[in-house]
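Chapter summary example.
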Amino acid sequence: MLPPPSVASHSDFACSRRLFTRRRSDGRVDCGSVPGRAHLQVGESGVRRSGLLVLALVLALPVCAETAAKEGAVVVSNETNRAVHLPNPVEANGTGRLWAEAQYREGLDRVQYPLLEVFLFNSTAKPVEWKRAFLNGREVHGLTNGVVWSQFYPAEKAPPGQESSHGRATLLQINLEKRPADAQIIEAETQDGQRVKASLERFSAPTVRLDAITFSWDFQRVFIAYTTHQFQRKPARVTINQADCTAKTAVLQTPIGPSPGLLAVTLPQPVRHGMPLHVRLELPPSVPPGAPTAVQALLRCRRGISLDDFGVKDNDAKLRQELGLDARPGARMVEADPACEDSQAHKMGHSTPPILATRRQWYLEGDERLSYQYQCTAATVAGGFYSAYSQITDALQINPYHLAWSQAERFIESQERYYVWAKMAAAPRCWLLIPELFTTRGRFLEPDEYRSQIYGAVAIGLKGLRLFMYGGMPPSLFGYEKSPRLLAAVKQVNREIKSMEPILSAAIPVSTETIGSEKDGLRLYTLWSGDEGLLVIARNLDYHTDRQPNDFGNKPRCTFVPKKNVALSVRKPAWLTPVPIPGAESEAASAVQVTDLLSRETIRAQRQGGRIQLTLPALDVVRVLWIPRLQNQGGST
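The structure predicted for these 637 residues follows.
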């Protein structure tokens, strides 16, 4: 049972309390296990997860999906989507039409928990309320007939087609226990008994994927990052909320190898935080003859970087301002613990009914904040939790906690893979992080560790933090206010993030590169902030630490070894024309403007062909570099 909200209810520690009352003779404790899943063992010395080697192999393989059309429906997929022919709409009361398009969305697990997504469209002059769904002739219910959970997202009621500002699409999501071996026929029924149908065949190799969708700070443009796995292709058609925006789309870059393509789309009208947005992207066929390839998503618009804390009340304006938190964070957590609850119940999907009900209730109440549930430390990719639950709410939040519950001394790098999993699982929606700002035994995170950890997450597309936690949970859990050095670092990082919020809000991760050794080199990340510029984050890997107590941070255990005169070479995207340094002459004409957003230091760089070369005078922990785009420069079309 979770603690009441008034006691800083963090459900992972509800899980940990259950764990540590069932300690085994070997010092470990069991969080329970779902049959057929990896079993988690937790002890004071760390966490051991079976199947980690399998995880690495699984994640290295491409995700598979396939779609085809039957029963007169256009069939598309989030991974590989071949629109076979036009939809066969159902006439609705003679005043328009209803129709459906379906796609598979496979998660990180290649076998378990694929998601069937059916996009239901209402172009009638009246609102429509979707009531029931059927899969292969059987009505869909969670926890029965191989269905883990299902929902109409964001709600059952679809507005009239004329209300384009609110969108006209409803997403029917059906999460399955296993990848189906046969074709699937999905039907959706309205309140007055009308049905639309779509069908999907078996999975096959993916061809296109939506990697990220972000927005300009003024909410007038949307940026779409997509990956194709066969050819460099420009989209043939782009629609936003059923409006054709192809003519308003700048193709800034087509996919090249692992680097995504980037589209900048001028929205038919500005949107707002929390508004549903339907995006549909069609690409020309890769191998003729063939139909257009399509991919689509329905998500709620978001802007900014949400900063919150479990221990700080929403109405405590003074403390929120002091800590640098949002007065009203842009995201709100559903109080649920899917991994621990499902593990204890020995049934995937056991925890989903209240999560689904809460998310729907908040939306219907008009709450503009994005809902999120989180994957606690009991969640594993091999266990299927990331695949099963990443799309059940508007966003996904994780808390790896690798300082307290990992055997790794250099835990920041071991934790970083969880950021990658979260980004991939949530895409194209956003992901958030719970930093480990507590201690039970005197070993707090230290300022440099915290800074390295958070900017490593920012580099992988982080869109929100919920700190755990100010105030602790008496008598044995101490919050970061007990460590003056860590408290100061939290305030500073929060201020820095807010100062960079417009840039970080639109940022899309593009690449990660390790330069030198994993133990003493550096990690270089590149992100595109929409089409505004290039964000480069350099993180020092040369540090030494251990897991021994540090007297609440007063006796530091972590030391970063500063680097001097660090030469960096960054690939320049095709759409980026850097801002030149004024007054440059002769060979200096290629000099471009680079700013360290943390120190506000200006760094001289050179554009050489398709790369930007620069030298950092020093790299202590992390550098966040900004290379703005020269304005009024059009992208490729």
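To summarize the output: The longest strand covers residues 97-105.
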